[in-house]
Amino acid sequence: MKVYNLCCESGHRFEGWFSSEQDFHAQTEKSLIACPFCDSHAISRMPSAPRLNLSNSDSQVLEDPALQVKLVELIRKVVESTEDVGTRFAEEARRIHYKETTERAIRGIASVEEFQELSEEGIEVVPLPLPVPPKESVH
Predict the structure, then answer these.
(1) Which end of the chain has fewer CB atoms within 10 angstroms, the N or the C?
(2) How many whole angstroms separate alpha carbon 93 and alpha carbon 118?
(3) Comparing 50-59, 81-90, 102-111, 115-124, which segment has the lowest mean pLDDT?
């Protein structure tokens, strides 16, 4: 497994996981790699320290380029179709659950404890790790 630091033409930095260096080059040539922030396909590899993957994990998600693309598409759809309530996620999820505010799809940040409390209250939430957006405007 090769882990590369990547950068798009707009300067957004992100990480890419590839089965080999040849896999990275093949995906780059076919424009299969897209910036998760702006969807640019003009991607370059940044200098990075070596990283060794010593686990014997049989997870195919990070090893299958097609699954990587689908995962990025899923994350993009979640971001586009939900309201970001930030650190007020647990509070807002409760307000929606108890019908104190309009029902809508939200996303945000919750601690492990908040997530457990919401689950214990019967409030259905799904953890989905997303990249942290830059603090400044990317446009």
Answers:
(1) C
(2) 8
(3) 50-59
Measured CA to CA, the distance from residue 58 to residue 50 in angstroms comes to 22
State both tokens at 94.
């409760």
The verdict on pTM exceeding 0.85 is: no
Interior/surface letters 8-39, b for 16+ CB within 10 angstroms, e for the rest: beeebebebbbeeeebbeebbeeeebbbbbee
Domain boundaries, the chain: 2-79, 82-120
CA-based end-to-end distance of the chain = 33
**8 Å CB contact between 40 and 9:** yes
Tokens of 82: 């939900």
Which alpha helices (H) appear in 60-138, and where do they start and end? 65-80, 89-97, 112-120
User: Which long-range contacts link 28-36 to residues 24+ away (Cβ below 8 Å)?
Assistant: 32/65, 32/69, 33/6, 34/72, 35/8, 35/10, 36/12, 36/72, 36/75, 36/76, 36/131
Rounded Cα gap, residues 56 and 112, in angstroms: 27
